[in-house]
Write a structure and sequence with these properties.
The chain has 343 residues and is α/β, with parallel strands linked by helices. It contains four helices and 26 strands. The protein has one domain: Pectate Lyase C-like (3 Solenoid). The strands form three sheets. Strands 1-2-5-8-11-14-17-20-23-25-26 form an eleven-stranded parallel β-sheet, covered by helices on one side. About 6% of the residues have low confidence.
C-alpha cells in the first residue's frame, strides 16, 4: 500500500512539474518571440542592450518584427547575426539614439574588419533614426558600420567616424541609404557591395578620398550617389571622389551638390595606371563649385572643376536613365527593391 502511495505521489509530482514546465515554456516563448520589442538603456524596456535583444528575436522569421530603440547611448559592439531576418530597428531620435564603440585597427593588431561598432550579417533588415559611431582616436582604420547581409535599408541614420567609417562588405549584396549623414577622413565609404545613396550628406573631415569601391568585375553596379550633398570641414580643400580599391570599382555621382573641396581631377588611380582602364567611374548633372562641367554641370563651367581625369566616364542621358532604374540597379532573381519604411 505504501509503495502504491509513493508511486501515485511521484506521478502527481511528475504531472505538476510537467505543467509548470509548460507554463514556463509558454511564458518564455511569449517573452522571446514578441513582434514588438523595446530596448532602453535606462531599464524601462524589454532589454537594456542591443545584443541582449537579439536573443529575443526568432530565427529566420517569415513575419516582421519591430525593435524600438529608445534614446540613450549604447556603448557596445552590436552584431545582428545571420539568422535574424525581417526586422525593423527604429530609433527614437537619430541625434539621441547612439550606438558607439572605440576599436581601431592598431589595437591588439585587430585589423580593419574587426573594428566595427555595428556588424549586420542578417538580411531583409531596416535601420532608421540611429547614430552609429566609432569614436576611436584617429590612429588607424575604425569601422562604424560593417554590412554582410543582403537587402538592407538605412534611413535617416548618422554614421560617424574617421578612416573607413562605412564598410559595405560582401559582393552582390544590396544596400539602400536614404537621408543619411556619413562622415570620415580616408576611404570612408568602401567595399564590394551594391549600394544606392539617395539624398545623403557626405562630409569629408580631411583632405583625402571619399570612396574606395571594390566592385567585382562580374557585378554590374557598385556605388550610386543620387542627389547627395558633398560637404567638408573647415580648411579641407583637396578631396577626391574616389579611388579604386580593386580594378573594377564602380562609383557614379548623379545630380549631386559638390562643394569646392572636391579636386578638379575628381578621381585617383591609387598609384596604378592599369586601374584607369578598368575602373567604372562616372558623373552626370551635378552642381556646385566642385562639380564637373564636362559631366553635364553648367554651374561649374567657369571653374577649374571641369577638368576631370580623362579616364572618368561622362555619362549620357541614356546611361543615367538606366542607372536610376531601380529594377536594373538592384536586379536579382528575387526582384527586391527598397520599400516604404515605418515612421
Amino acid at each position: 500500500m505504501m509503495r502504491s502511495c509513493i508511486q501515485s505521489a511521484c506521478r502527481l509530482c511528475s504531472w505538476l512539474l510537467f505543467g509548470l514546465w509548460l507554463v514556463a515554456a509558454d511564458a518564455y516563448a511569449a517573452r522571446e518571440y514578441k513582434r514588438e520589442l523595446v530596448v532602453a538603456a535606462d531599464g524601462s524596456g524589454d532589454y537594456t542592450s542591443l545584443n541582449e535583444a537579439m536573443e529575443g528575436i526568432r530565427a529566420f522569421m517569415d513575419y516582421r518584427v519591430t525593435v524600438h530603440i529608445r534614446k540613450g547611448v549604447y556603448r557596445e559592439k552590436w552584431v545582428v547575426p545571420s539568422w535574424i531576418e525581417n526586422v525593423d530597428f527604429i530609433g527614437e531620435s537619430a541625434d539621441e539614439t547612439i550606438i558607439t564603440y572605440a576599436d581601431h585597427a592598431n589595437i591588439r593588431a585587430m585589423g580593419t574588419f574587426r573594428t566595427y561598432t555595428l556588424k549586420v550579417e542578417g538580411c531583409g533588415l531596416t535601420f532608421r533614426n540611429l547614430t552609429i559611431c566609432n569614436d576611436a582616436e584617429p590612429l588607424g582604420q575604425a569601422v562604424a558600420l560593417h554590412t554582410e547581409g543582403d537587402r538592407l535599408q538605412f534611413v535617416h541614420c548618422r554614421f560617424l567616424g574617421n578612416q573607413d567609417t562605412v564598410y559595405t562588405g560582401a559582393a552582390s549584396t544590396r544596400l539602400y541609404f536614404e537621408d543619411c549623414y556619413i562622415e570620415g577622413t580616408t576611404d570612408f565609404i568602401f567595399g564590394p557591395a551594391t549600394a544606392w545613396f539617395e539624398g545623403c550628406q557626405i562630409h569629408s573631415k580631411a583632405n583625402s578620398y571619399i570612396t574606395a569601391a571594390s566592385t567585382p568585375q562580374q557585378v554590374h553596379a557598385g556605388y550610386l550617389f543620387h542627389r547627395c550633398r558633398l560637404t567638408a570641414a573647415e580648411g579641407v580643400d583637396k578631396v577626391y571622389l574616389g579611388r579604386p580599391w580593386r580594378p573594377y570599382a564602380f562609383t557614379y555621382f548623379i545630380e549631386c551638390e559638390m562643394g569646392s573641396h572636391i579636386r578638379p581631377e575628381g578621381w585617383h588611380n591609387w598609384r596604378d595606371p592599369a586601374n584607369e582602364r578598368t575602373a567604372r567611374y562616372g558623373e552626370y548633372g551635378s552642381t556646385g563649385p566642385g562639380a564637373s562641367a564636362a559631366a553635364g554641370s553648367s554651374a561649374a563651367a567657369e571653374t577649374s572643376a571641369g577638368q576631370r581625369v580623362a579616364w572618368a566616364h561622362r555619362l549620357t542621358g541614356e546611361e543615367v536613365n538606366r542607372c536610376l532604374n531601380r529594377d536594373w540597379f538592384f536586379s536579382r532573381s528575387d526582384q527586391w527593391l527598397p520599400g516604404d519604411l515605418p515612421l
